[in-house]
Amino acid sequence: MTGLLHGRVAVITGGAQGIGLAIAERFVAEGARVVLGDLNADQLGAAVTALGGDEVALGVGCDVTSIDAVQRLVDAAVDRFGSLDVMVNNAGITRDATMRKMTEEDFDQVIAVHLKGAWNGTRAAAAIMREQGRGAIVNMSSISGKVGMLGQTNYSAAKAGIVGLTKAASKEVAHLGVRINAIQPGLIRTAMTEAMPERIWESKMAEIPMGRAGEPDEIAGVALFLASDLSSYMTGTVLEVTGGRHL
Questions:
Q1: In this predicted model, what pLDDT tens digit does every residue of 92-120 receive, in sequence order?
Q2: Residues annotated catalytic, as ranges
Q3: Which of 13, 29, 150, 153 is the least buried, fewest Cβ under 10 Å from its Cβ?
């Protein structure tokens, strides 16, 4: 029995840890070969080893704010594995502060990594996929991009922008066989979220009808759905994975 991504090649930014690594693990389990883009060289090496080594995974240092770096990342997938079938634009950072205290640099960095990074990845991947006549791009938004979060004018703006980017870009390439969709995770248990003060964590938990945080693998399952032929008639959509939070 072959997996849902048998024979396909996926690039995942921010792929050496957290949600990105969980997506890579799920994709490899479903038959894909993966190329991980990340700034952390040590974590890249460990992730490639954990995924099964050089036959199924490649790590590439990548700053997603640089179009040249992202181009090298997608080119590496084609050079090593022969195609680019799935692109997951997942890389992200937070620089939380109230608007009054947020610096211009805090704003610019978050917009650059999330929104420009997703645009760079979508643009570079779509250029390859349109020539192949098929491909799936998955952009990582956030429920913060739907409702807006205190202390996250930068992050919420970037994540809302990713929704607009996804919808606009999907219309440009749908007739070429390329699908572009987005995921909006809610509170997911990662190293980043677990570093929150306990009172903040508890206040967020109180908003979740299912009564628990999500796990990275639960985002990975939705990414697999959007990357595979299970979602073959879906493009420009945004899937909320929140446990019912902010319905």
A1: 999 999 999 999 999 999 999 999 999 99
A2: 155
A3: 150
Is residue 246 a part of any domain in this protein?
no
* 56: phi then psi, degrees, rounded to nearest 5: -120, -10
Summarised one tens digit per residue, pLDDT across range 52-99 is: 999 999 999 999 999 999 999 999 999 999 999 999 999 999 999 999
Q: How many residues does the chain have?
A: 247
Q: Is residue 69 part of a domain?
A: yes
Residues 147, 246 contacting (CB under 8 angstroms)? yes
Evaluate whether 86 touches 27 at the Cβ level (below 8 Å). yes
Place of tokens 């650059």: 112
List the CATH number of the domain containing 36: 3.40.50.720
User: Residue 60 gets which letter from DSSP?
Assistant: E
130 confidence band (pLDDT: 50, 70, 90)? very high
State the pTM of this model: 0.97
Helices vs strands, H then E, count in the chain:
10, 7
Residue 32's alpha-carbon distances to 7, 56, 167, in angstroms, are 6, 7, 26
Residue 3 belongs to a domain: no
Question: Whole domain around residue 195: which residue ranges?
Answer: 9-241
DSSP labels, 91-142: --------TTT--HHHHHHHIIIIIIHHHHHHHHHHHHHHHHT-EEEEEE--
Number of domains in the chain: 1
CA 157 to each of CA 65, 74, 95: distance values in angstroms, whole numbers, following the listed order: 17, 26, 13
